[in-house]
Design brief:
alpha+beta; single chain
């Protein structure tokens, strides 16, 4: 590593640490202000409160890491440009791309940290935070309570079956008041209603069963027969798949949107189990999947867009970096929201909608950097 690489590293990491520290102080104040009622309702003690705040930290770092890196980059580059340090290095034969190598290393490292936090730490810490809140006062989000799920509806595209469960206990794989509708190859429908169902030897067994038939989705129900016990080996949905379907159906609701986002591994498994999924659900989950793939690379895109804005020659005020980061961050956020909305609505392919902000801002950064003389 050359001397100027070490110097640029040091000059970037210092404002990066200060920016992270400043955001952290602000977040701690905001956290205790907004969560005080929840902490009091859960009757948390001092150490529990500190532990609860620690459980929420990974989500905070995921949120602020790209904007913090952008702010630190623009500050450091503007500082170098004001003192003609970049001009001096380029006059010595160091190209702007080679000069920016330390920044790309930091950007790639930040992308890796972002990915690990988003895919590993945030989901685990979300469960950890719920456990902390349930230590002294049991609530609906307690892990023991969450095993009993009520009034759940979902559709499995692979098997063309609609499920409604009055209650589902994921710990024992038992259902109360299940109602299953499915289509047959001739286009007719069948409906199964039961008082309960259990998973025995890999087969769903229903009790107090009523079976109905329909010539079509709008035809009247016609009773076929009733029985006290019916095994349905053709219902190959496993308890794990049913729990996954319930979780993904909740992702569309307001309650589901407030929780931690769904990790890539679960999204990939869900999409693999539903290869024929289309319509709004297909657009939504494919866009979400590619969005989570694209999100960590935002840190590298930040480096690409900051270089031309910060390294342009000329004496500028240091507040230029702050103002520039706010504008760039806002523009990126707006484009990201527009892209995800277009992808979820089916206007754009999911992969393009998710990667669109990164592609546009990366191209802008590369073009502007190439034009710097």
């Amino acid at each position: 590593m050359r001397l100027h690489d070490r110097y640029l590293f040091r000059e970037l990491l210092t404002p990066l640490a200060f920016c992270l520290g400043g955001f952290l102080v602000f977040w701690i104040s905001f956290f205790f202000f907004t969560e005080m009622e929840t902490i009091q309702e859960s009757k948390l003690r001092l150490l529990d409160t500190v532990e609860y705040a620690a459980a929420m930290l990974p989500g905070f770092f995921v949120m602020v890491l790209p904007i913090t890196l952008l702010l630190a980059m623009l500050y450091a580059l503007t500082h170098h440009a004001r003192h003609n340090e970049i001009t001096a290095l380029r006059s010595a034969g160091v190209s702007l791309w080679r000069l920016s190598a330390p920044y790309f290393v930091v950007g790639l490292t930040a992308s890796g940290i972002y990915f690990l936090l988003n895919e590993v730490a945030v989901p685990k810490c979300a469960d950890w935070s719920e456990q902390i809140l349930s230590r002294y006062v049991k609530n609906a989000n307690d892990n023991k309570v969450k095993t009993r799920l009520t009034n759940k509806d979902f559709y499995i595209a692979r098997t063309h079956r609609h499920w409604h469960l009055g209650e589902y206990d994921s710990a024992t794989a038992t259902m109360s008041n299940p109602n299953v509708n499915w289509t047959l190859p001739d286009g007719s429908w069948k409906t199964l209603k039961a008082s309960r169902a259990v998973r025995t030897n890999g087969v769903w067994t229903f009790f107090d069963v009523q079976l109905f038939a329909q010539a079509g989705p709008h035809s009247p129900l016609r009773p076929v027969y009733s029985t006290n016990l019916m095994a349905m080996p053709e219902f190959d949905e496993t308890p794990k798949q049913i729990l996954s379907e319930i979780k993904f159906s909740d992702a569309h609701t307001l309650r589901g949107s407030r929780g931690a986002d769904i990790p890539l591994t679960e999204l990939r498994e869900y999409l693999r189990n539903n290869p024929d999924m289309s319509g709004d659900d297909g657009h939504y989950f494919f866009t979400k999947y590619y969005g989570r793939l694209a999100a960590p690379w935002t840190c590298l895109v930040v480096v690409l867009i900051a270089i031309p804005f910060g390294a342009a020659p000329g004496r500028r005020n240091l507040f230029f970096g702050v103002a520039g980061s706010i504008f760039i961050g806002f523009a990126f956020f707006v484009l990201q929201m527009v892209g995800l909305a277009l992808g979820s609505g089916g206007t754009l392919p999911g992969w393009l909608a998710a990667w669109l902000p990164n592609i546009i801002f990366a191209l802008i950064g590369i073009i502007l950097t190439a034009r710097i003389r």
